[in-house]
Amino acid sequence: MMLDTEIKSQLSQYLQLMEGDIQIKLSVGTDDVSRDMSALVDELASMSANIHVERTELDRTPSFSVNRPSEDTGITFAGIPLGHEFTSLILALLQVSGRAPKTDQKVIDQIKKLNGSYHFEIYASLSCHNCPDVVQALNVMSVLHPNITSTMIDGAVFKEEVEAREIMAVPTVYLNGEPFSSGRMSLEEILLKLGSGPDASEFAHKKPYDVLIVGGGPAGASAAIYSARKGIRTGIVADRFGGQVLDTVGIENLIAVNYTEGPKLAATLEEHVKQYDVDIMNLQRAKRIEKKDFIEVELENGAVLKGKTVILSTGARWRKAGVPGEEEYRNKGIAYCAHCDGPLFAGKNVAVIGGGNSGVEAAIDLAGIVKHVTLLARSTVKADPILQDRLHTLSNVTVIENAKIKEITGTDKVNGISYIDRETEKEQHIELQGVFVQIGTIPNTEWLADNIEQNENGEIITSKDGSTSIPGVFAAGDCTDSLYKQIIVSMGSGATAALGAFDYLIRN
């Protein structure tokens, strides 16, 4: 039996929502994965009269496809979709059976208007928290469009294929046999990359907002909710709704929430914002801000949005090491998410750059997967004592302090890292196959130039009410000079900025 009693009970409830019959085409051999895949598919069929199984040969073995009767819908799982991909399997069963995806009609129309044939292959790992978003988005596209197929490939099962294509980060997507993308992407982002997205003309009719929020992370979502609850015209424009939270794995310090994961929290934030009359403009990046009669925010697509007040909550992004070799070998041995990409380095030697909490957590995570981890800290290791204690119990981890990274070396992919010992000034080289960069964040404020006062780190300087050096412009979250960069702090500062903006509107 592949599924435990609790999971089977939950699955049984979902399968009752199926609206029609589906055909599972199963292609298996005599290996262990094939045996487990057969067991899973047989269990599914035993739980619903709507599920029928046919043994056949598919492009990959072991794999199975989920189809409408007498047609190839185009959703295939090359590997066993458990772990983070279990939800992808459930949604595929429901959607292929006829249950409509929870997707905006505007997006559905964009998918149906695509011309040509699109055959997507998504290389994933079952421990990757970003992979299901991509798998599920492409599965929706294949359900809605007859000329789109979507295949999830478990990199741990098809190792030779992963090696041949030199895939060293997940999710990695191929389209019609050619590299398409690497990293988390939403359905809207995929459509935008395919050339199906909003242009400046779609924003021309928008009237000035009472509050225009730039950024859709925890601070922006909080600001939007607090503004909308005041009954004022609120708009939020975001590069990607959820922000950096989408790249966060386990969250255990959000008060009243024992544990959640970044993508789940981001989805909840967006769902909460949508409970109010907020104009959400996703996948749009701001490029300029200027105060005229209104405060104008120009987007990269050329559109200009106006607000009586503006709240900047553009967040931060992972800081790069900034050393030779980093850009050349990005996704060719250099990674920024140990949880996502760690399984691709099983049995190999890797390094982690960074001696803070994120660096030590990554080293601990990787130690259970790879052959050996070398942690490189520029000074001393500064992670929480409990993390350091755990780190020092691991026999396959070496800690090197006072290391100045000189270069990440490689040929077609990473083969080593060079550093200078700050105490001896001697250069050292370590042969390895992967480097994980975990050295903090940098605020997304470059687009503001000198228009708004910032500190030496590029963080927006704010007052107690979130106001900035431009009257009517407020800021919140990780893009500000807030002392602590935490989700709950960002939420609070978003609420503060919204209340400050409302007070500004009343007084002006």
UniProtKB/TrEMBL annotation:
<keyword id="KW-0560">Oxidoreductase</keyword>
<feature type="binding site">
    <location>
        <begin position="210"/>
        <end position="225"/>
    </location>
    <ligand>
        <name>FAD</name>
    </ligand>
</feature>
<dbReference type="InterPro" id="IPR023753">
    <property type="entry name" value="FAD/NAD-binding_dom"/>
</dbReference>
<keyword id="KW-0520">NAD</keyword>
<dbReference type="InterPro" id="IPR012336">
    <property type="entry name" value="Thioredoxin-like_fold"/>
</dbReference>
<dbReference type="GO" id="GO:0050660">
    <property type="term" value="F:flavin adenine dinucleotide binding"/>
</dbReference>
<dbReference type="GO" id="GO:0016668">
    <property type="term" value="F:oxidoreductase activity, acting on a sulfur group of donors, NAD(P) as acceptor"/>
</dbReference>
<keyword id="KW-0830">Ubiquinone</keyword>
<keyword id="KW-0676">Redox-active center</keyword>
<dbReference type="GO" id="GO:0032991">
    <property type="term" value="C:protein-containing complex"/>
</dbReference>
<feature type="domain" description="Thioredoxin-like fold">
    <location>
        <begin position="120"/>
        <end position="193"/>
    </location>
</feature>
<feature type="binding site">
    <location>
        <begin position="468"/>
        <end position="478"/>
    </location>
    <ligand>
        <name>FAD</name>
    </ligand>
</feature>
<dbReference type="InterPro" id="IPR044142">
    <property type="entry name" value="AhpF_NTD_N"/>
</dbReference>
<dbReference type="GO" id="GO:0005829">
    <property type="term" value="C:cytosol"/>
</dbReference>
<keyword id="KW-1015">Disulfide bond</keyword>
<dbReference type="GO" id="GO:0051287">
    <property type="term" value="F:NAD binding"/>
</dbReference>
<dbReference type="InterPro" id="IPR050097">
    <property type="entry name" value="Ferredoxin-NADP_redctase_2"/>
</dbReference>
<dbReference type="Pfam" id="PF13192">
    <property type="entry name" value="Thioredoxin_3"/>
</dbReference>
<dbReference type="InterPro" id="IPR036249">
    <property type="entry name" value="Thioredoxin-like_sf"/>
</dbReference>
<dbReference type="InterPro" id="IPR044141">
    <property type="entry name" value="AhpF_NTD_C"/>
</dbReference>
<dbReference type="InterPro" id="IPR008255">
    <property type="entry name" value="Pyr_nucl-diS_OxRdtase_2_AS"/>
</dbReference>
<comment type="similarity">
    <text>Belongs to the class-II pyridine nucleotide-disulfide oxidoreductase family.</text>
</comment>
<keyword id="KW-0274">FAD</keyword>
<dbReference type="InterPro" id="IPR012081">
    <property type="entry name" value="Alkyl_hydroperoxide_Rdtase_suF"/>
</dbReference>
<feature type="disulfide bond" description="Redox-active">
    <location>
        <begin position="337"/>
        <end position="340"/>
    </location>
</feature>
<dbReference type="GO" id="GO:0000302">
    <property type="term" value="P:response to reactive oxygen species"/>
</dbReference>
<dbReference type="GO" id="GO:0008137">
    <property type="term" value="F:NADH dehydrogenase (ubiquinone) activity"/>
</dbReference>
<dbReference type="GO" id="GO:0102039">
    <property type="term" value="F:NADH-dependent peroxiredoxin activity"/>
</dbReference>
<comment type="subunit">
    <text>Homodimer.</text>
</comment>
<protein>
    <recommendedName>
        <fullName>NADH dehydrogenase</fullName>
        <ecNumber>7.1.1.2</ecNumber>
    </recommendedName>
</protein>
<keyword id="KW-0285">Flavoprotein</keyword>
<feature type="domain" description="FAD/NAD(P)-binding">
    <location>
        <begin position="209"/>
        <end position="494"/>
    </location>
</feature>
<comment type="function">
    <text>Transfer of electrons from NADH to the respiratory chain. The immediate electron acceptor for the enzyme is believed to be ubiquinone.</text>
</comment>
<dbReference type="Pfam" id="PF07992">
    <property type="entry name" value="Pyr_redox_2"/>
</dbReference>
<dbReference type="InterPro" id="IPR036188">
    <property type="entry name" value="FAD/NAD-bd_sf"/>
</dbReference>
